Amino acid sequence: MTPSTKSPKNKKKNKGKKKKDRGLSAGTADRYELYQRSVNSPETDVDFVTRVFEELRGRPLRRLREDFCGTAAFAAEFLGRHPENRAEGFDLDPKPCEWGKRHNFAPKGKDVAERMTWHLADVRSPADVPPEATVAFNFSYWCFKSRPEMVAYFRSVREDLAPDGLFFIDLYGGPDALIEQEEVRDIDGAFDYVWEQRSWEPGSGTYRTAIHFRFRDGSEMRSAFEYEWRFWHLTELRDVLLDAGFQEVESYFEGTDPDDPEEGDGEFTADPIGENCEAWLAYLVARK
Ligand SMILES: C[S@@+](CC[C@H](N)C(=O)[O-])C[C@H]1O[C@@H](n2cnc3c(N)ncnc32)[C@H](O)[C@@H]1O
Questions:
Q1: CA of 141 to the centre of ligand 1 (A)
Q2: Is residue 170 within 6 Å of ligand 1 at its C-beta?
Q3: C-alpha torsion 207→11→68→99, nearest 10
Q4: Ligand 1 pocket test: which of 39, 69, 140 has the largest number of ligand atoms within 8 Å of its C-beta?
Q5: What is the full per-residue pLDDT of the chain (288 aa) written as tens digits?
């Protein structure tokens, strides 16, 4: 996968402002900050989810649940958009949540922070208030490696949703996704983000990946994040969502940049077929 393909991590087009990055080094850099700058694109994700929710349900989205929320960059962006928006975030690890409170919520003020409920809990736990939309982004749900586990997770999401709720997941695929390789991407001229696809086992589906960061001073933060997932194909996931009781599942694929046929344009539209390119990104939207 080259940095210019529609790769999983190319969805994350940095809309953010460039920061003063002199002195960034492996020993002192903050791995969550590096991760967010390289991987997350909350504005784009929130644009997509709120637009599709409004198109399908005819009203604005006000109650969100973010599973595997980590630093909850998505929820923070959503809450900042409207004073009636509320969110619940679920993650087992307190470290990214604490980081998110300090860096994503505190700067937005008390009002935003108060409309967020954090759950240091498994994603299969119920929300306090049934969400109108639940999101599980950045492929985190691939941690469920067997079909029964994935069915059970999707079923718990479905049961937890409000009666006409929607479930959003993202995924990627294409032949490049299964190749053992590193993809290097420059972030704001400040550091390199390295997405390593370490291994994929065709027999078990086990898929190991890692994120490294390389700095202009020659230092490297190796294995800043490591994942062991199952690689799930879109068609399998659609079947599992339907088996879990969702009524309808639609795929949304990214369009092609008119100036560069190798690059995605960041626009996702409903498309039941998709394009057989080397690497693609999609969202699945499942209706309760
Ligand atoms: C790849 S990070 C994704 C963070 C965030 N969704 C994002 O887009 O950047 C995966 C997160 O899932 C959390 N996690 C893994 N298994 C979980 C589970 N069963 N229940 C809740 N959180 C879980 C981890 O603690 C980690 O913070």
A1: 8
A2: no
A3: 120
A4: 140
A5: 223 334 444 444 444 445 567 789 999 999 999 999 999 999 999 999 999 999 999 999 999 999 999 999 999 999 999 999 999 999 999 999 999 999 999 999 999 999 999 999 999 999 999 999 999 999 999 999 999 999 999 999 999 999 999 999 999 999 999 999 999 999 999 999 999 999 999 999 999 999 999 999 999 999 999 999 999 999 999 999 999 999 999 999 998 888 887 778 889 999 999 999 999 999 999 999
Closest residue by CA, ligand 1 atom 14: 68
With the most atoms of ligand 1 within 8 angstroms of its CB, the residue from 31, 92, 142 to mutate is 92
Helices (H), the chain: 31-39, 42-57, 73-81, 94-100, 110-114, 147-160, 234-243
Would you say domain 38-173+232-287 falls under CATH 3.40.50.300?
no
Q: What is the model's pTM?
A: 0.93
The answer to whether 179 and 197 have CB atoms below 8 angstroms apart is: yes
- 68 CA: nearest ligand 1 atom: 12
Structure letter (DSSP) for residue 17: P
